[in-house]
Design a protein that fits this description.
Elements: E1 7-8, E2 15-16, E3 22-23, E4 30-33, E5 43-53, E6 63-69, H1 73-76, E7 83-86, E8 109-112, E9 122-131, E10 137-147, H2 150-153, E11 155-158, E12 175-176, E13 181-184, E14 190-191, E15 199-200
Parallel strand pairs: 7-10
Antiparallel strand pairs: 1-4, 2-3, 4-5, 5-6, 8-9, 9-10, 11-13, 12-15, 13-14
Length: 215
């Protein structure tokens, strides 16, 4: 963003004395914009106006100046939406959510446009704001944040046999003793059943005959 009154390079104007001789910008003088240049589109040969403000606070008349608008870092880079995985309650990294962040310029800043709720498991969609060192920025929508559930983090394996009574009616979804399964975390360490969790039948056990080792 360039505002009226902002300085520009003195080469944008040519200074001549009363004899028509080209002279340098005097000490303490500066060239400033008198109109706000349009930088909304890249292109060369655009025209604006500027003036010289001298050290004694006198000013020249505004003169036409030519300026070129070159691409900013947001124009020349293409951040891509990716996926980041976190556990419940953790804050996801906005940078990690941009899949090609290693290809973007050093010093690029990554922020969430809106806070991602990680209190509940599942996939959440968010937008990352990418800000480059030159001050340009862009939004990257469609970023996925996966919040791990207990089932994502714990692997259930067969545990101790369960004892049922001959003829006992057991339905799919009924609970059974948690010792029937062995739970292991991602490191292969045995863990306890989390609070609020239960083990349930996914098939109806056959109790029509007495016997051991049924599956």
């Amino acid at each position: 963003k360039v505002k009226v009154g902002d300085s520009l390079d003195s080469s944008a104007v040519t200074l001549k004395d009363a004899k028509g001789q080209t002279v340098s910008l005097p000490d303490g003088a500066k060239v400033v914009w008198t109109t706000e240049p349009d930088t909304s589109e890249v292109g060369n040969g655009k025209t604006g106006q500027a003036k010289v403000v001298y050290g004694d606070n006198s000013e020249s008349e505004a003169v036409d100046v030519t300026y070129n608008v070159v691409p900013n870092q947001a124009d020349t880079n293409k951040p891509e939406a990716g996926k980041v995985t976190v556990n419940k309650g953790e804050k996801p990294s906005a940078q990690s959510a941009i899949s090609n962040n290693k290809d973007l310029p050093e010093g690029t800043q990554y922020d969430w446009k809106e806070t991602i709720d990680t209190t509940k498991p599942g996939d959440k969609t968010g937008t990352v704001v990418v800000t480059y060192q030159d001050g340009s920025s862009e939004e990257v929508p469609g970023v996925t944040v996966h919040v791990n559930s207990d089932a994502d983090l714990i692997n259930a394996q067969a545990g101790q046999p369960v004892t049922l009574t001959h003829g006992q009616k057991v339905k799919v979804g009924d609970s059974l003793d948690s010792s029937a399964v062995t739970l292991k975390d991602a490191k292969g360490q045995t863990v306890s059943l989390p609070d609020g969790a239960k083990v349930v039948w996914t098939t109806e056990p056959d109790t029509s005959e007495v016997g051991n080792g049924k599956t």
